Structure formats: C-alpha cells, structure tokens
Amino acid sequence: MKAVILANGDFPKKQNLISEILCANFLIACDGAVKHLKKISKEPDIIIGDLDSISKSLKKKFSTKIIHIQEQETNDLTKAFFYCIQKGFKHIEIFGATGKREDHTLANIFLLYHYSKYAQVCIKSDFGTFEIHNTPCSIASFKGQQISIFCLDTTCKLTSQALKYPLKNLSLKNLSQGTLNEALEDNFKISSSKKTQIIVYKKS
Amino acid sequence: MKAVILANGDFPKKQNLISEILCANFLIACDGAVKHLKKISKEPDIIIGDLDSISKSLKKKFSTKIIHIQEQETNDLTKAFFYCIQKGFKHIEIFGATGKREDHTLANIFLLYHYSKYAQVCIKSDFGTFEIHNTPCSIASFKGQQISIFCLDTTCKLTSQALKYPLKNLSLKNLSQGTLNEALEDNFKISSSKKTQIIVYKKS
Question: What values do phi and psi take at A82, rounded to 5?
C-alpha cells in the first residue's frame, strides 16, 4: 500500500506521473496543492496544512477532508508525510515537491534524509526522481540514464561502479561535485568509506 | 562593471529581471539558453558551452560569438563564469540557473561556494535570489521578506538577529532546517561559532 503526497510546487504534466496520482491508494494534498486535482478529475483523501494557500471555495468543498495543523515548525509536506506514517504507510511517493520557490525545492529534497528514517520515500517530477539510499547500494537505472549523486556528509568518500565518470574514493566537497553522471548499465553501485546516505537523482 | 550569465533553466518572466538582462554590460548565454534572448530582442556578447543544446540555426547566426569548450569536467555555467573572470569581471549575476532539471538547479546553487572565491556572485529567478555570505554578516532585506539560510558546514552553529524564527547557536543538520524564515527589519544578521559561508535565499 502506497501513499501519494501532492505538494504545492509544479504539478506534473507527464501522463505516467498523472496516472500514479490517479491510481494512488491514498492521496494527500498539501494545502493549496489541491487546486491541481480538479484538472485530472481526482479528489484527495485528505487535505493537510496550515491552510494559508487553499482557496475559500475549495476549503468549503472539501471541508470534511481538511486537517488544519497550525504549527509553523514544520512545512506542509512534513505534516502530510507524518500523517501518512501515522496511518501506517511504509511507501510514500511525493509529487509537486519541486518547482516554483527554490528554497522550498531544496528543503523538500533534503527532507528525504529525515523522512527515510520512517518509510521508503521518493520525490517524482516531470524531469526526474530523487531517491535516498544507504551505502553500500545497488541502484536500478538504464543504460545512458543521466544520474546525479548528492551526499551531505562531506567527510565520506564515495566509490562508484558502472557510472560513466567514476567516483574513486571521492568526497563530494560541495553538493555539485557528484552531479551530471551517466549510468553505463541497468544498475550502478555506490560504496563509501563509512556508512552514509546518498540522495540519487535519476533523469526521466 | 557587471557581467550577466544566462543559463539554460527557466527564463525569467518578471520585468525587472528582464531589464537587468537587457541592460547587462556583458551578457554570456550558456549554450542553448541563447534561444530565450530572441523574445526580448537582445543579442548575447558571447555564447559558451559544449554546444549540445543550441540549434543549428542559432549556431550559424551567432557563429562569430561562439566559444566551444568541449571538456565535460565542468558544466556550461562554470565555463561561462570563468570566462567572465578571465575578462576581469568581479560582479556576476546569473539568470536561468534554476527550474527544469532539479539536479542542475542544485548543482548551480551550490556552485556559488566555488564561484564566491573569485567574484561577487548571485543567482536570480522570478521567485527569489540566492546570495553567498561570509559570516559574520549583515544582510539587506525588507520587513516581512521570506528568508531561507543554507549552510553545508553542519558542524558550525549559527545565531541570527532580526529573523522571525531566531537561530540560537543552531547547527543546520540537514539543508532544510534553516528554511522558511522571515526578516523582521530592513536587514538581519548571522553570526557563527566559526567562520563559514552561508547561502541566503531571499524571496522576491
């Protein structure tokens, strides 16, 4: 059983992503993100957030589905994520987490570090997918797929197998150094000098 | 004298940003990004990159302005940046660095750490501006401006003045913890437990 969260960034245009939203076992919209669902004739199971971005008419229409959480310590995506965890979901896909305000995009991507303690989680957009992996790991890909690797632990040295530009015991000193790589086969491997977590971006 | 670099992400829509591109002392387009300039009736001074995304017709039209750099160790933005440095520019503004592929967005934002060794540099989009500052620092803002702080050095503890949600000797353990703050006055201050650099996002 998989939950889908729709955050308030760019709504996907690609049909395979829209199909995933349409077929979600459980769909939570973050606050004003619910406005995008009308155009795909889908209703959310729950709307969650501090309700600063949903329109009055949608608030009225979905009044029985709204969970208003006022606290400002966490963003709406985190409120939605932990609602799913409380409901018992162990597999959560997030759409609309990127695009528009870039600080939201960054925050949402690196919240994967936090979320991954509680569930299998990824972020999907028209451009690609962010996943989080514990090293050492073998990651599914396709030959020629554009890959970027991000690691916040700059003391950790990474080594790759089956990437076009190999990482050889390399610490990614800023977040740009592991980007714009390419998979050579239908999977690639990352190992590291100590156990760590990496965020992997796969271009669609 | 200020150089403007146009990267190949989202082209700005806001008139004040378009005016900055129109009035640039020196304008470099990264590869295929040059296609956006036609709609604002502006020609670049230079087009730089590995030329994998510019159209044949634009390549022909601007043949005398193209600098083809094949090496794949750096991205087109970095090629453009160091061309400006060689030309003697000490103030560089980057547009089109965000939007579209999210791994490019991340790489471009965190390249500010690298670029800041050589020039005063910022990234501007329709949504906001990324700047990089050495701590301690006083940063211009306006009352109510939405602010996010990013710091890759997770061992460094930050303290703020004149932010709505104060940082009190806080290490930003992942990149999300310093986001979604708000300026209380027309500037705010960040100090730190040791000298470091922070990336500051100011919503427009």
Answer: -75, -20
B98: contact with A, CB 8 A cutoff: yes
Residues from chain A that touch B7, judged by Cβ atoms under 8 A, are none
Distances (CA, A) of B182 to A143, A175, B65: 45, 25, 43
ipTM of the complex: 0.95
Going by pLDDT thresholds of 50, 70 and 90, the confidence category of residue A28 is very high
Q: Distance between terminal CA atoms of chain A?
A: 24
Asked if the Cβ–Cβ distance from A179 to B109 is below 8 Å, we say no
Would you place residue B189 in the very low, low, confident or very high pLDDT band (cuts 50, 70, 90)?
very high
Look at residue A139 and tell me whether its pLDDT is greater than 90. yes
A105/B110 CB distance under 8 A: no
Supply φ then ψ for residue A84, to 5 degrees: -60, -40
Residue from A53, A103, A122, A171 to probe the interface with B (highest B Cβ count within 10 Å): A103
Closest-CA residue in chain A for B204? A101
Q: Are strands A128-134 and A137-140 parallel, antiparallel or unpaired?
A: unpaired
Q: So what CATH class is B2-126? A: alpha beta
- Please state the domain extents for chain B: 2-126, 132-203
B71 at interface of A, judged by CB pairs closer than 8 A: no
3-class DSSP assignment, residue B11: coil
pLDDT digits (tens, 9 = 90+) for B28-75: 999 999 999 999 999 999 999 989 899 999 999 999 999 999 887 899
User: What's the N-to-C CA distance of chain B in angstroms?
Assistant: 24
| String of DSSP letters for B136-198 | SEEEE--TT-EEEEE-S-TT-EEEEESBSS---SEE-SSTTTT-SEEBSSSEEEEEESS--EE
Q: What is the DSSP letter of A163?
A: B
